[in-house]
Amino acid sequence: MNSQLLIYDDADPVAAGHHSEYIEHLIEYWLRLPVEGRLDIATAPEFRERYDRLHQLLKEGERAGVCFRPLKGSRAVRKAGTVSRSIAAGRLLKESVEKVRPSACLLMSFDHFQASLATGLRFDFPVKLAGIYFRPTFHYGQFEGTRLGLGDRVRQLRQLVMLSFAIRNPHLSSILCLDPYSVPFIHRLRSNLRVFPLPDPLKPLNESHDAREVRRSLGLEGETKVLLLFGALARRKGVFQLLEAAQALPDSVASKACLLLAGPIPASDRSEVNSCCEKVRSGKGVRVITIDRWIDDPEARRLFSIADVVLLPYQRHSGMSAVLVRAASARVPVVGSDYGLLGELIRRRRLGIATDCQDPEKISSAIVSSLSRPRTEFFDAEQARCFAEENSAEEYAKVVFSQVLD
C-alpha cells in the first residue's frame, strides 16, 4: 500500500531537538486515530538514536503503519553553504518523496524548502505538500516596539519575494504557521492556498513537582531567586548578553540570584561561556549553575517548577519560542526580547517584561523589575494559562492531520 503521509524533516538533531518532540506528538496522535494506511517518518538517522521517546514510539508504531526512513544524506546537506544547502535539500527531498510516493508530505520546516519550491521542484505523481512555517518576518513592521533597520527591511523584502514564488508551486497545498499574525499576509499572496495558524505544541502538565526537592537537588537554599535560561545555549540566544547583564545587577539582587543555564552549549562557545560564568560568580557573587546537555521533557518541567523568572534574551529572534509556551504552562513570567513575534506575544498576552535584549543594561533592569515589582503589574496568570492551552500538543496534532490529510 502506498504511504498516506510522509513526515519529512532534514533538521540537525542536535541543534533542533524540539523537532523530535514535534514528531513524537504526531506519532502519538496517529496511534490513537482509526486510520488505515502508512505514516512514514523521514529524518536524519541520529534522531532515532538520540531521542529515546521517539525511538520507542517508532517501534510501537510499526504495527500501526509507522515506518522510519533514515535520510542518509542529510548530514552532507546540513554542512553545505546557504545556496548549496537549499539545492541539496531539494534534491534529497525529491529523491525521498519519489521513493516513498505518499499521497501527502508534511515538510517539518517549510523555511528550508522555499528556494526549491520556487525554482521548479516537481514530482511525477500528484503528491500534496504542506509545510510548517517557522520564521516569517515580513510582517514584523506592524508590531509595536519592533525597530527595523535597513538590513531588516532588505531581508524582509527578500523573504517576501521568495515566498511569493514558492507558494506558486502546484504541489503546495497548505502552510501551517507557527506565527499566527503572518496568516493574513500569506493569504493576500495566494488566496486559494490553505494557510492556518499552528500551535507550538506542549503536553499538558499532569503531575506536580516538589519544588523543594528539585531545589535541594541543585543545592539551592533559602530565598534564592532562580533565573532560568533554558534550551540550546547558542550565541544567538543571548547567553553572553545575559552574563554581562548579571554583572550589572545591584548587590541586593545579585546576592539572592541564581542563574540556571540549562541546555547544551555549542562546543565552539563552551570555553567562553564557562569563562564568563566564572567572572559573574567571582565579580558579583551571583550563583551560576550550568547543565550542559540535552534536557528531556520531564526534567524540563522540574526545572521550570522552581523558576522565579524565565529568561529569553534572544538576539533579534524570528519566529515562535517553545520556551515561552513552557513558561506560560508553568505560570512563570519571562524577561525576553521586545523584537518580532516574541516581543509581541509577551506584550499582548502579558506574559512578562519585553525589553531590548541587545543591551545588557536593559536586561539587568528588566530582571530587577521582574523580582521587585508586584507580579500582577506585568504578568497575567490567566492569560498564561490560556496561551499554554492554545498551544497544546493535542491541538497541534489535530491541526496537522485535519489540514494535511483533508
Question: How would you summarize the topology of this molecule?
Answer:
Elements: E1 5-8, H1 18-32, E2 39-43, H2 45-50, H3 52-60, E3 66-70, H4 74-79, H5 82-100, E4 104-107, H6 114-118, E5 128-133, H7 150-166, E6 172-177, H8 183-189, E7 194-197, H9 211-217, E8 225-230, H10 239-246, H11 251-254, E9 257-262, H12 267-283, E10 287-291, H13 297-304, E11 309-312, H14 322-329, E12 334-337, H15 340-348, E13 352-355, H16 360-372, H17 381-390, H18 393-404
Parallel strand pairs: 1-2, 1-4, 2-3, 4-5, 5-6, 6-7, 8-9, 8-11, 9-10, 11-12, 12-13
Helix pairs in contact: 1-3, 1-18, 10-12, 10-16, 14-17
Task: Describe the structure in brief.
By secondary structure, the chain is an alpha/beta fold. The protein is built from 18 helices and 13 strands.
